[in-house]
């Protein structure tokens, strides 16, 4: 019995040593303080090093070269060798160079990724801009472009989920991975506003380190940034703030942070045209790096920023016209602000417009006309206008009805307007593309003034007219 016990103990010790050696050879990437630490075990396999380099966001690095002692790719990417202990080589990289938020408590970075295809930017509510406010950073961007959610503690918990509008508040998806200091989940998000909570052993909980919460349900709020305002120089300035059309020209709530090259501020900014200026120690200035400027109603000159899709408006003919403008719901129907430039065949102008559905018209020598080349229209205020969808995310299709004279689309997205959006016939089917917000959408087609549900969609629900509405879910 004693000999048997001895053999079992020796075998157990050998297994532990093998597991320990295997764990050490994997290497790891750790975040702590204000830097990333990359630890490479030179006894690792090429596959193990490739996996580690992927975690660190190094796409061009060659694992075989690194295992031979060639660290050129690491150095080019901003990593510096910190120390070497036996077969373990440690490299450091400042978080500042990665545009990341530093962490107070280090934790292991894993490769567990939730390949989320349900990004919902701007949902549940559109906002002009957003800036995160953490007591301790628990959500940040990784070099890979993924967003990491971190729940510190809860070492005794058995199961933790991340749930939010990005996965339709699922209680099944979003499984978080346990680390030595908490739980993490990596997901893919587009820029926008997101609400989320953690589900710890079946109990919903907000992010206690996140100071931004929704007015309802105490959901934690995170903004995935998409823009950085920069002002180079001004090393001796004491305080620089940003005032803009998107924050009602408040010169106090957006304070720029000092950087090695000057001043900057990251934030989420809704697409569209925005005017802004900087306040440097009490003195207003425009952005010296931005040549686009406009005179404000208050007498100040402002810099102008355009975020969105480029849309080209063309009007063929009318070569004898003196002035041609375009106006629409994208600029509150101001007809004299957006001039078209004369071309050999007519008139044209390029505009940057945020995603959405818009009505528009051309103004030819003070006469409003619809776009003669656009068969799609919409009704606004009892007036028929040309219709355009910028960055549409769904195309409605109605097959057949070849002899129909007109087909329109009405739904919850346009208040079931009787005119709706006009569909165009391509010889096989009627179509119209629409920009829709995430969530449930109800709709119907109107074929020669007759309302009908979508024959190609099996999803529908009853309505107050006992005729039903087709149902569409946008993720």
Automatic annotation (TrEMBL):
Task: List keywords of the entry alphabetically.
Answer: Kinase, Signal, Transferase
Task: Please list which residues make up the signal peptide.
Answer: 1-23
Q: What is the lineage of its organism?
A: Bacteria, Pseudomonadati, Bacteroidota, Sphingobacteriia, Sphingobacteriales
Q: Which family does it belong to?
A: Belongs to the 5'-AMP-activated protein kinase beta subunit family.
Question: Which positions are tagged coiled coil?
Answer: none
Species per Swiss-Prot/TrEMBL record? Mucilaginibacter gossypii
Database matches in Gene3D superfamilies:
Immunoglobulins (2.60.40.10)
Keyword Signal attached: yes
The protein's name is: Glycogen recognition site of AMP-activated protein kinase
Q: Does the keyword Transferase apply?
A: yes
An example Gene Ontology molecular-function term: kinase activity
Where in this chain does the record put each AMP-activated protein kinase glycogen-binding domain? Answer: 156-219, 236-306, 320-393, 403-468
Q: Which InterPro entries match?
A: AMPK1_CBM, CRP1_MDG1_kinase, Ig-like_fold, Ig_E-set
Q: Which Pfam families match?
A: AMPK1_CBM
């Amino acid at each position: 019995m004693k000999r048997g016990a001895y053999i079992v103990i020796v075998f157990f010790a050998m297994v532990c040593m093998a597991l320990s050696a295997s764990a050490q050879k994997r290497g790891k990437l750790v975040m702590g303080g204000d830097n990333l630490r990359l630890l490479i075990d030179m006894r690792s396999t090429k596959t193990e090093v490739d996996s580690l380099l992927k975690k660190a966001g190094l796409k061009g690095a060659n694992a075989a070269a690194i295992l031979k002692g060639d660290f050129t790719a690491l150095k080019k990417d901003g990593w510096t060798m910190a120390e070497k202990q036996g077969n373990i080589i440690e490299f450091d990289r400042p978080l500042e160079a990665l545009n990341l938020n530093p962490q107070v408590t280090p934790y292991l970075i894993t490769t567990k990724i939730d390949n989320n295809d349900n990004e919902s930017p701007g949902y549940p509510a559109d906002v002009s801009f957003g800036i995160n406010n953490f007591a301790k950073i628990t959500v940040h961007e990784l070099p890979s472009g993924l967003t990491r959610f971190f729940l510190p503690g809860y070492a005794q918990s058995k199961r933790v989920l991340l749930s939010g509008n990005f996965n339709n508040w699922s209680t099944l998806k979003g499984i978080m991975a346990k680390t030595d200091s908490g739980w993490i989940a990596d997901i893919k998000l587009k820029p926008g506003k997101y609400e989320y909570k953690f589900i710890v052993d079946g109990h919903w909980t907000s992010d206690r380190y996140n100071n931004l919460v929704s007015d309802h349900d105490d959901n934690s709020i995170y903004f995935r940034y998409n823009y950085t305002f920069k002002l180079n120089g001004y090393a001796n300035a004491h305080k620089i703030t940003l005032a803009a059309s998107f924050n009602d020209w408040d010169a106090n709530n957006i304070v720029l942070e000092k950087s090695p090259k000057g001043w900057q501020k990251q934030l989420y900014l809704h697409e569209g045209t925005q005017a802004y200026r900087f306040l440097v120690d009490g003195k207003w200035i425009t952005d010296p790096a931005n040549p686009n400027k406009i005179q404000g109603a208050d007498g100040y000159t402002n810099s102008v920023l355009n975020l969105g899709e480029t849309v080209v408006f063309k009007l063929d003919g009318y070569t004898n016209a003196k002035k041609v403008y375009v106006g629409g719901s994208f600029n509150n129907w101001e007809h004299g602000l957006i001039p078209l430039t004369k071309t050999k065949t007519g008139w044209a102008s390029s505009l940057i417009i945020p995603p959405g559905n818009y009505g528009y018209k051309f103004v030819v020598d003070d006469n409003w006309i619809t776009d003669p080349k656009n068969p799609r229209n919409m009704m606004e205020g009892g007036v028929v206008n040309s219709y355009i969808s910028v960055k549409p995310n769904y195309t409605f299709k109605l097959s057949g009805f070849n002899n129909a004279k007109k087909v329109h689309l009405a739904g919850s997205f346009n208040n079931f307007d009787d005119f709706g959006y006009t569909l165009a016939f391509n010889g096989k089917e009627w179509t119209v593309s629409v920009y829709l917000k995430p969530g449930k959408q109800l709709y119907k087609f109107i074929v020669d003034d007759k309302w009908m549900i979508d024959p190609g969609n099996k999803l529908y629900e009853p309505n107050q007219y006992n005729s039903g509405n087709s149902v569409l879910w946008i993720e």
